[in-house]
Amino acid sequence: MKWAKEREGNKELFSLNRRRFLSLSGIFGLALISGKIDISMASAEKERKMTYQNKDYNRLLGMEGFSDTLLKNHFTLYQGYVTNTNKLMDALNQLLKEGKTGTAEYAELKRRLGWEFNGMRLHEYYFDNLGGKGGIHKGGKLVQKLAESFGSYEAWEKDFKGTGTIRGVGWVVLYQDILSGKFINFWINEHDVGHPAGGMPILIMDVFEHAFMIDYGLKRADYIEAFFRNINWTEVEKRLLLHKG
Ligand SMILES: [Fe+2]
C-alpha cells in the first residue's frame, strides 16, 4: 500500500541520516562537557524559527464522516513529514557548512526534500481546508472565479470530484495560476512531482488510501462527498490572494 511505501521511505531517511545525527549529537555532548557551548536565548529563538512546527488539528476530531481513528492516524503521518523535513534541512545545512555539496549523500537528501516538505505542506493545506460548516458562499469571489474558468461552479465541482476518482492514489489540487489568474484542477501523483510552476494551492484533497480506507474501504466516492460536506470555504477563499486580476 502507498502508506506502507511512505513509512518505508521515512525509515530509509532515518537510516541514511543516522550516522549524521549520531555525529552531531556526539559533538554536542562533548561541547557540553567541556563547557565550550553557550546557547543563548537569542540563538535558541533563531533555531526555533528555522524549525518547522507540527500544527495541531485536534479541532477536526468528531468531524462528520471522519472517524477519530482515521484522523489520528493521519495526524501522525503528517507529523512524520514535519519531523523528516526538519531533519533533512538540518542534515543538508551541515553538509553545506562542511563543503560537501558534491557528495552523493547531499544529492540524495536534496532529492528527498521535495517529498518530505510537500508531504508536510500539502497535509497542512488539506487539514486547514477541512472543518467547515455550510457550503460555499454562492455570491462569493471564489464561485465567480471558478465560473470564469470552468463555465460554472457546478462544472468545476464535477471536474474536481472526477479528478479525485482517477484510479491510483495522490492528491487533487485546485490551483490558481498566479500569472493568468485562471483555475485548474490538477492530479498530483506524488508529493514532489507534477505541481504547476507558479500555482497557488486553493483547495486540496488527499486521496491516498490512508485518507479514507479506514472509514470507507474502496468507496472513495463516498469519502469525496464527506470531504465536500466539511470544506472550510472561508479558509479556502483566504487563499485567493496572489493574483490581483
Ligand atoms: Fe495524507
Using brief descriptors, characterize the structure shown.
single chain, mainly alpha, binds fe (ii) ion, 9 helices, three-stranded antiparallel sheet
Give a verbal description of the structure.
The chain is mainly α. Helices cover 57% and strands 9% of the residues. The protein contains 9 helices and 3 strands, in the order ααααααβββααα. It has a 3-stranded antiparallel β-sheet with strand order 2-1-3. The chain is globular, with a radius of gyration of 21 Å. The chain starts with a helix and ends in a 7-residue tail after the last helix. Bound molecules: fe (ii) ion (FE2). Residues 74, 77, 123, 206, 208, 210-211 line the site of fe (ii) ion.
Q: How much of the sequence is in beta strands?
A: 5-15%
Tell me the span between the first and last alpha carbons. Answer: 43 Å
How can the largest sheet be summarized? 3 strands, antiparallel
Helix % is 55-70%
| Radius of gyration using CA atoms only | 21 Å
> What does the overall shape look like?
globular
Order of helices and strands: HHHHHHEEEHHH
Low-confidence stretches: 6-37
Q: Averaged pLDDT, please?
A: 86
Structural class: mainly alpha
> If helices are DSSP runs of H or I spanning 4 or more residues, what is the number of helices?
9
Order of strands, main sheet, comes to 2-1-3
Q: What is the number of strand segments?
A: 3
Bound molecules: fe (ii) ion
